Amino acid sequence: MQAVLRAPRFWGTFLTIVALFAVTGPYGTREMMQPAERLGYWLAVHAVTWTIAIGASILADLALKPHLEGPVLRMMLGSLLAALPIGLALVGLDALMRGVPPMLDNVLWRAAQALPLCALFCILTILTLRPEPERRSGGSLLDWPMAEQETAGKRPEQAAAASSPVSPSPALAPAAATSHAVPLLDRLKPEHRAALLRLSVQDHYTEIVTARGRELVLLRFSDALREVGGTPGLQVHRSHWVADAFVADLKREDGRLFVVTRDGGSLPVSRSFQESVRQRFARA
Fold first, then answer.
1. How far apart are CA 10 and CA 39, in angstroms?
2. Predicted confidence (pLDDT) per residue in 43-78, tens digit
3. DSSP one-letter string for 160-171
4. 243: Cβ–Cβ under 8 A, 6 or more apart, which residues?
5. pTM: predicted TM-score of the whole model, two decimal places
6. Residue spans per domain, the chain
7. pLDDT tens, 228-237?
8. Where is the composition biased (Low complexity) (predicted)?
């Protein structure tokens, strides 16, 4: 929700639509209301409906992830289910601001009218949340879920659990004492600032793992990569970066290449990175 509310495109679209409704005065509001009153009415209507639809989209994405693959489908389902509470909210606003008596039939009619708008709100939310590299490359909306499906990780609400310390091998201890100037570390809590070990995409967050722990930061992965400073490392996947000192070995499972890290974990290697990974980390 923070990512949506901070997006200039979101607010530009919202204000444009409110202004359009206020000027044209649909649903009889032009004849019944003065310009200032009409602007206030449509501002209230759109603020309430957008909040309900976008909130329902994001909640559905969180709640349905264990049961339904693909964030686009989950968010669209949540947005459409929001039509009924939106219909109820609109009837309440009409009663409050236009003096229209609240009736059950009006709730159902308003909910039916809200369905296409709910889908529109959902698409706008997806476009706002879609990672910046995919927007620039012109990928379709369905490209976005692939990154999520390939990333095995936690959601932002698990940040507290994810801050548990990492137990690197003794070989990494000197690295913690002589860490490079890494701008990315300034984003972490002081107790987590140490040698950078790896980065991973966790939905709209970047998980930063150091020799002293891990932390989720609301930051695009591409921006995180630009802030690793002089830390020697390599991007091995569009969702993973690993420091040279944290790589223990390479392995293959079911025809796929993985980087084995010093804490016993493993990171998948994308096809486009396999050659550079072999050249850098393959043991003689």
1. 19
2. 988 888 888 888 888 888 888 877 877 777 888 888
3. HHHTSPP---GG
4. 195, 196, 197, 198, 231, 232, 233
5. 0.46
6. 2-142, 151-281
7. 988 999 999 9
8. 159-173
Residue 187 CA to residue 15 CA, distance in Å, equals 33
CA-based nearest residue to 200, from 250, 256, 160, 150: 150
Where do the H-state alpha helices sit in the chain?
Answer: 2-5, 8-24, 29-32, 35-63, 71-81, 83-97, 104-129, 132-137, 143-150, 159-162, 173-177, 221-226, 274-281
Q: CATH top-level class for 151-281?
A: mainly beta
Largest CA distance in the chain: 81
Q: Which residues contact 35 (CB under 8 A, 6 or more apart)?
A: 22
Residues with Cβ within 8 Å of 110's Cβ and at least 6 positions away in sequence, in order, are: 86, 87, 88, 90, 91
Q: What is the mean pLDDT of residues 200-226?
A: 91
> Whose CA is closest to 96, among 48, 151, 53, 167?
48
Q: Are 63 and 43 in contact (CB under 8 A)?
A: no
Write the single-letter amino acid at 41.
Y
Sequence-separated (6 or more) residues with CB below 8 Å from residue 87: 106, 107, 108, 109, 110, 111, 112, 113, 114
Amino acid at 67: H
